Amino acid sequence: MTIGIAAHGPNAGLAVIRALAAVEAVGRGAIGGFVSFVALSANGTVERATTQQGGSGALFGSGARAMPSAIAKAAIAGLMSSGPDRPEPLSQFTPAAAGVGLVTGHRMPNTIGVSGAFLNDEVLDLMHQGVTPEDAVERVVSANPDVDAGIIALSLD
C-alpha cells in the first residue's frame, strides 16, 4: 500500500504523522517502511524528514512524540509512505517550495509525464506560476490519462 497524506491547518505536521501511524496500526502489506515527510513552517522554510525503514515510528526517532515543535505546529504538511527501501532522494516523492506549497500522492507521482517533467514537480511548477492546486492537478492528470499515480497538492492559502 502506498499512501499520500496532506493537511492544511493548525498542527498539520502532527496531524499527518498521527494519520500515518493510524494507518500503520491497521494496514497490511507495503506499509511501515519509507516515509518522505515535508512541512512548510511558520517562518516559511521547507522542513523535511525521511526514513527508509520503520515508518512513522522511525521518522523522528520516537514518532510524533519526538517531532520538533516547529514541524508539528506547521500549518501545511504532507507525506508519502509505503514499504521499505525506495530510490533516493526520498524528497522526489514530496516536492515543496517555500511561499508556494507542496505536492504528495500515491503510487508513482514522480513518473515522467508527457511534458518530460516529473508529474509532481510539474504540478508544483504550475502552482508557482499562480495556478491553483486543483487546476494544476487537473491539468497534469488530464495530460497524462494513463499514468499510475494519484496527486495531492496544497498551497499556502
List the helices and strands and how they pair.
Elements: E1 3-8, H1 12-26, E2 35-40, E3 46-51, H2 55-59, H3 69-72, E4 76-81, E5 96-97, E6 101-107, H4 119-128, H5 133-143, E7 149-155
Antiparallel strand pairs: 1-4, 2-3, 2-4, 5-6, 6-7
Helix pairs in contact: 4-5
State the main characteristics.
157 residues; alpha+beta; Glutamine Phosphoribosylpyrophosphate, subunit 1, domain 1; four-stranded antiparallel β-sheet; three-stranded antiparallel β-sheet; 5 helices; globular
Description:
It is globular, with a radius of gyration of 15 Å. It has five helices and seven strands; from the N terminus they run βαββααβββααβ. The strands form two sheets. The chain has a four-stranded antiparallel sheet. It has a three-stranded antiparallel sheet with strand order 5-6-7. Helix 4 runs antiparallel to helix 5. Strand 5 and strand 6 form a beta hairpin. It has one domain: Aminohydrolase, N-terminal nucleophile (Ntn) domain (Glutamine Phosphoribosylpyrophosphate, subunit 1, domain 1, 4-Layer Sandwich), CATH 3.60.20.10. With 157 residues, it is an alpha+beta fold.
